[in-house]
Design a protein that fits this description.
The chain is an alpha+beta fold. Helix content is about 15%, strand content about 40%. It has one domain.
Amino acid sequence: MKTSIFREIWLLLSAIVLASCGTSDMIRPSQKIGPMWVNRYGHTTAENIWDHCDGSMTDIPGTQTTDCTIPWVDELFIGHGIYGMDTAQRDALWNATTWELFIDGHAVDLPAFNIADFEATQDDATYQYRVWRIRLRKIPEGLHTLRYVMHVNQQVDGVFDAQSIGAYELIVNFTFGK
């Protein structure tokens, strides 16, 4: 009788472990889309896509599309995110959102890439930023598409920009290496 119970428990635990190890169709760090590597951004000299492409989302829920050209580079930082007047506002804004990213139509497991927090000054004001740590390497020449979707799930009091509940989509069509 005890052997039967232990066997059933063992089978149940094995099934749970195997189910949690299931494969995902989402792109994770150090995976490839064709010849292109999708990696975490770390201490590299990656070019910032936002130096070449407009990363602005709409002021109200909706879709913003931008087209741009990226000259050939070894690595391209593509992380997007939010900023606040201080860390408390940044954290509140971040906690009020969920994110999706698609690269050339492939869904990306963004939490697997982690986030980076930093401070930057713009127009004599200092802001607290949080961005996804993601970069591309060995990018093939030609047209590529990033599709970021930020879902605002709740309003945050005191934000300096309009923030309405809904989905904000940024589609970046970039031609690489020309």
